[in-house]
């Protein structure tokens, strides 16, 4: 069985954000990292986002991003919910796109003649980002595993997690959840036998 991508804790995510703050394209990279960790979207889904998918006609970040069926692994459209903190972060980044064509990709790549990141180039982007930060075992899939594991740690129903992650099978979601000390401690703490 292939090794699972590392689940990052809040300190490790902070290290990633601190690193991107010191680099070129800091605003974009911060928005990318936070989008990945706060939505649990697949890399291919994030790479497919257009400005019009994320930003409304008045220039505000939408509370809900609608993923088209052709942009999801399951070929089924779904909604991705944007929490308030992420919405504010994305609003800062969206200023880069004031008056831009709404059909442009939401996350630009360094190559000015490109149409933004592809799934492959975004995977590579995260691979090198985590390597530079020194997070062994982390990959573009780490954010999705972290998102799902965090929800499980908070006691969120697996059915809700399936809906948020776009999984159709319970067994698929179970593979993402990192069974850790926190999860087991929370389970025992919630159990009062006598």
From TrEMBL:
GO terms for biological process: DNA integration; DNA recombination. The keyword Protein transport does not apply. Residues 3-189 form the Tyr recombinase domain. InterPro entries: DNA_brk_join_enz, Integrase-like_cat_sf, Integrase_catalytic, Tyrosine_recombinase_XerCD. The keyword Transmembrane does not apply. GO terms for molecular function: DNA binding. SUPFAM superfamilies: DNA breaking-rejoining enzymes. Keywords: DNA integration, DNA recombination, DNA-binding. Belongs to the 'phage' integrase family. This is Integrase/recombinase XerD. It comes from Polynucleobacter sphagniphilus.
């Amino acid at each position: 069985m292939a090794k699972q991508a590392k689940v990052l804790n809040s300190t490790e995510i902070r290290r990633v954000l601190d690193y991107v703050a010191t680099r070129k394209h800091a605003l974009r990279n911060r928005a990318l990292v936070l989008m990945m960790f706060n939505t649990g979207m697949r890399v291919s889904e994030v790479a497919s986002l257009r400005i019009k998918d994320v930003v409304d006609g008045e220039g505000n970040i939408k509370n809900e991003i609608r993923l088209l069926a052709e942009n999801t692994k399951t070929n089924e459209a779904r909604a991705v919910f944007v929490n308030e903190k992420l919405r504010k972060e994305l609003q800062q980044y969206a200023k880069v796109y004031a008056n831009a064509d709404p059909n442009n990709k939401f996350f630009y790549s360094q190559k000015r003649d490109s149409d933004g990141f592809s799934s492959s180039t975004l995977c590579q982007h995260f691979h090198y980002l985590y390597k530079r930060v020194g997070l062994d075992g982390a990959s573009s899939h780490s954010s999705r595993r972290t998102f799902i594991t965090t929800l499980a740690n908070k006691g969120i129903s697996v059915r809700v997690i399936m809906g948020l992650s776009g999984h159709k099978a319970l067994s698929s979601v179970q593979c993402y959840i990192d069974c850790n000390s926190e999860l087991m401690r929370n389970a025992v703490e919630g159990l009062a036998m006598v």
